[in-house]
Design brief:
Elements (H helix, E strand, L loop, with lengths): L15 E4 L15 E5 L7 E6 L12 E6 L1 E9 L8 E4 L4 E4 L8 E10 L4 E9 L9 E4 L5 E3 L5 E5 L6 H5 L2 E5 L5 E7 L5 E7 L8 E6 L16 E7 L11 E2 L2 E2 L18 E2 L4
Parallel strand pairs: 11-17
Antiparallel strand pairs: 1-2, 3-4, 4-7, 5-8, 6-7, 8-9, 10-12, 12-15, 13-16, 13-20, 14-15, 16-17, 18-19
C-alpha cells in the first residue's frame, strides 16, 4: 500500500480516490480529516464514507460504525483501537457496506483502513483515524479483595461491585476473565450487595486450594454498562489463596491479611500471560 499524505491536506495529484467522511464533528461524535487512497484510474474512483449504522452522518459513542463504498466494493476493512484490538464487523449489500458488530467506545482513537476494488477492477486503499468524545456518564468498580497481591482465606469470594446499575450484564461479563494456576473451574454469579448495588462474584466449583494464585482481568475500558454509562479504565487484580480462617473476629490474621480488609479498586497496567483462563463469559 502506498504512503498516505497528511489527512488534512489536499492531494497534489487528482488520481487518488478520497475517503470522504460522512461523520460530522460535534459533541460526542467522531472527528477526523479526509485521507486518500492508493492510485486508481481517474475514470472509476471508489468513494469510501464513514457513518453510523442507523443511517445518520453523526457517529457517537455507543453507535455501530458503518463503512460504505460507492463506485466499487470493499475487499477488506480493518478498524483498530490504540491497543491494536480490532473492532469486529461484516460485509453486506454485495460488499459495498461494512458494519461493526460492536459499538464504538468513547474517548477512543480508531484507525480505519479500507481496501477497495472499482467497477473496472482498479484496486485502492483508504486510511483514516478518528476519535470519539469522552463519555458524559461513567460507571466505576470496587474489587474484593481490594489489595493487590493479597493473601486471602480459601472461602473468600472474588467480587466486583458497581457504583451504578449494570443493565447490560452480558457486555460486562464478556470482558471479565479469571486465571488460576490450579486450573480452578468456576462461574460468574450476579447478585446485589447489602446496599442494593449490582455485584458479580466468581464462584469456584470447589473451594480454592491453598497456595493458588489468582488473576482477575476486567477489560472494561469503553464498555457501556447500560443506558450510556461507560467505564473509563481496566481493572487488574492478583491475589493468593492461603489457609481458611474460621475465627469470627474480623481482625484475625489469615495468612498475611486480615479478614476484615476492606474492598477497594485495584488496577494495574501490568499484564501477564494467559495460561489457564477460566470463567470468561460464564
Amino acid at each position: 500500500m502506498s504512503q498516505f499524505p497528511s489527512p488534512c491536506r489536499r492531494p497534489r495529484r487528482p488520481r487518488r480516490a478520497a475517503l470522504a467522511l460522512a461523520a460530522v464533528a460535534g459533541a460526542g461524535t467522531l472527528s477526523a480529516c479526509a485521507g486518500f487512497a492508493a492510485p486508481a484510474p481517474v475514470s472509476d474512483p471508489v468513494k469510501v464514507a464513514l457513518g453510523s449504522a442507523d443511517g445518520t452522518r453523526t457517529v457517537r459513542a455507543g453507535d455501530k460504525l458503518e463503512v460504505s463504498a460507492k463506485g466499487g466494493v470493499l475487499t477488506e476493512v480493518t478498524v483498530t483501537d490504540p491497543r491494536g484490538r480490532r473492532l469486529p464487523g461484516g460485509f453486506a449489500n454485495g460488499a459495498t457496506v461494512w458494519t461493526s458488530s460492536a459499538e464504538i467506545a468513547p474517548a477512543t482513537t480508531y484507525s480505519v483502513v479500507a481496501r477497495t476494488r472499482s467497477e473496472r477492477g482498479g484496486v485502492g486503499a483508504a486510511k483514516e483515524s478518528l476519535t470519539t468524545a469522552r463519555a458524559a456518564r461513567l460507571n466505576t468498580v470496587v474489587l474484593d479483595p481490594g489489595i493487590q497481591d493479597a493473601v486471602v482465606a480459601v472461602d473468600r469470594l472474588l467480587t466486583l461491585t458497581f457504583e451504578h446499575p449494570v443493565t447490560d450484564r452480558a457486555a460486562v461479563q464478556r470482558r471479565l476473565s479469571v486465571t488460576a494456576d490450579e486450573r480452578t473451574a468456576g462461574s460468574w454469579d450476579w447478585t446485589k450487595d447489602p446496599n442494593g448495588k449490582d455485584q458479580v462474584a466468581w464462584r469456584p466449583k470447589e473451594h480454592w486450594k491453598p497456595g493458588t494464585e489468582v488473576t482477575l482481568r476486567a477489560e472494561l475500558d469503553g464498555v457501556d454498562s447500560g443506558g450510556g454509562r461507560y467505564f473509563s479504565g481496566d481493572y487488574d487484580l492478583n491475589f493468593t489463596i492461603s489457609r481458611s480462617c474460621t475465627d469470627s473476629d474480623p481482625g484475625r490474621v489469615c495468612g498475611k491479611v486480615h479478614v476484615g480488609d476492606p474492598a477497594g479498586v485495584a488496577s494495574s497496567p501490568v499484564r501477564g500471560k494467559d495460561d489457564d483462563t477460566t470463567g470468561i463469559g460464564d
